[in-house]
Structures are given as structure tokens and as C-alpha cells.
Amino acid sequence: VVGEIANFAAYAFAPAILVTPLGALSIIISAVLARIILREKLHIFGVLGCVLCVVGSTTIVLHAPAEREIESVAEVWDLATEPGFLLYAAIVLTAAFVLIFHFVPQYGQTHIMVYIGICSLFGSLSVMSVKALGIALKLTFSGMNQLVYPQTWFFTLVVVACIVTQMNYLNKALDTFNTAVVSPIYYTMFTSLTILASVIMFKDWDRQNPTQIVTEMCGFVTILSGTFLLHKTKDMVDGLQPNLPIRIPKHADEDAYESEGIPLRSAADGIPLRSPRGTEGIPLRSAADGIPLRSSSRGTESFRSTS
Questions:
Q1: Is the distance from CB of 26 to CB of 146 less than 8 angstroms?
Q2: CA distance 85 to 127
Q3: Residue 147 and residue 144: Cα distance in Å, rounded?
Q4: CA 37, 41, 46: angle at the middle one, nearest 5?
Q5: Which letter does DSSP use for residue 272 in this model?
Q6: Which segments of the chain are extended strands (E)?
Q7: Is the pTM of this model over 0.90?
Q8: Domain coordinates of the chain in residue numbers?
């Protein structure tokens, strides 16, 4: 809860293009704490993934744009109602509803991109609304009450609706697919769409030169590489994955009979069962119909049924 509150506050003081990619730092901290507290082993590729995340995060922090000066929630509303962002929001909502009503019933259980796509699309809108709400609360606490504006409560409703939808389909994705696959894909799509939405709505790149933009993108790609590497190798120890499936030998059942005694005839259909290969003995006769069966190697005498 404390972490999410701090993340919420960060959107009020820094651009989303900076705050969202830095969420990868939680992966690094989790890996380090798991190594220290839970004694989990971190593979060398996992260490490399953490280093890549740190390098990428540092690159983004050093070249991120400055926060746009906003003095009221009405100004955020003006940015959100510009044609460019309205077009983006319409495309996002259309794509999300198509995924929900058309693709989820048919492909939700087999294609991982369906659930993650819904979460990422709604996530980009929720971050923009969270940022708007955070700015409104920041201005309110500084003495300029923004709670009297209906736009503040509209952004609040959008935040609640988007977060509930995100959590619903994210839980379905985690329940259906492997977490090690869901986490990096969701982080990639969510962060990419959030950066795109922030660039369209708050025009972050308008205050930067092409060199800074390219450097930011390189830092983001570096974070993605570290995140994928860390999740891909998180179960590796000394170059091996501990949970590999064990293949049962083809003739394990036959070999298991080597220590057994004389095999019995099937009670259902009378098909004789053979004793282990390589055994020798004197045949016995069945009490029912006298079909001879081979005894095990331990048998040295012949017996005949009393019938």
C-alpha cells in the first residue's frame, strides 16, 4: 500500500515517461531481497538482468523531460480533450472492447496476448487519469482547491473503472499462464502504451531534441532486455532448470517385475502374463483350465493343481 501511494505521488511530480519505466526497479529490489532474506539463488544471467535494468533506468532519469507546469485540473482537462488524445482514447477503448467481447470467449484461454492486451490498453488510460488526479490533489494540498471541479471527479471515476478492469484480466492472465511469461510481456506492453499516451496527451517530446528522445528509447529497450532476461532465467541454478520433467524409461514397468514372484493369470479374460525376460523355470498349470505359465527363476520344482 505504501509503495502504491508513493507511485501515485510520483505521477504528480514527474512525467509518466519517467515514472512508468522506473517500475522495473521493483524487480531488482525483489530479486536482491529474495537473495538476502529467502536465501534464493540468483543465476549469473539474473545478475546481468538486474544490471541492465539499472543502466536503463539511469539513462532514462538523466535524459527525461522536465515536468510540465500545470496550475489547475481544468488545464489537464484541456489536454485530455484535444483531438489527438481523444483519437487515441477512442482507438484504445474500441480495441479493448473488441478483445473483451470477441476474442476473450474464443482465445482467452489459449492466447496470452488477449488478457495482457486488455490490461495494457486500460492501463495507459488509468495512468493518465492517475496523473491528472495526482496533480489535482497536489494543487489542493498547496492551497488551490481542485475538488470543486467536476473534472477531478471524472478522472477519479476513470481511475477506478480502469484499475478494476485491469486487475480482473490481469488475475485471469496469471491464473491461466505462467507468471514468468506474463510479467515481462505485461510490463513491456503497459509501459510502451503509457509512454505513447503521455507523449500524445502531455506532449513530453515537444520539449526535447531528437538525441534525448533516442537516448530515452535506448534506455527503455535496455530495461526491457534486463526484465526479460531476469524473468527468463529466474529458475536457473548453475545453468540448469530444477523443474525439468523426468522421463520414465520405456521398459520401467517390465524391469520392476524382476523382484516379483510368479505372475498370475488375468481373472477377466484369461490372457496369460509372461514373467520377466531372461528368467527360467518349470511351467505350472492353471487351476481353471490348465494353461501352463512360466515360473520365476527362483522356482526349482514343478507343481500341478489338485484339480
A1: no
A2: 14
A3: 9
A4: 110
A5: P
A6: 284-285, 292-293
A7: no
A8: 1-240
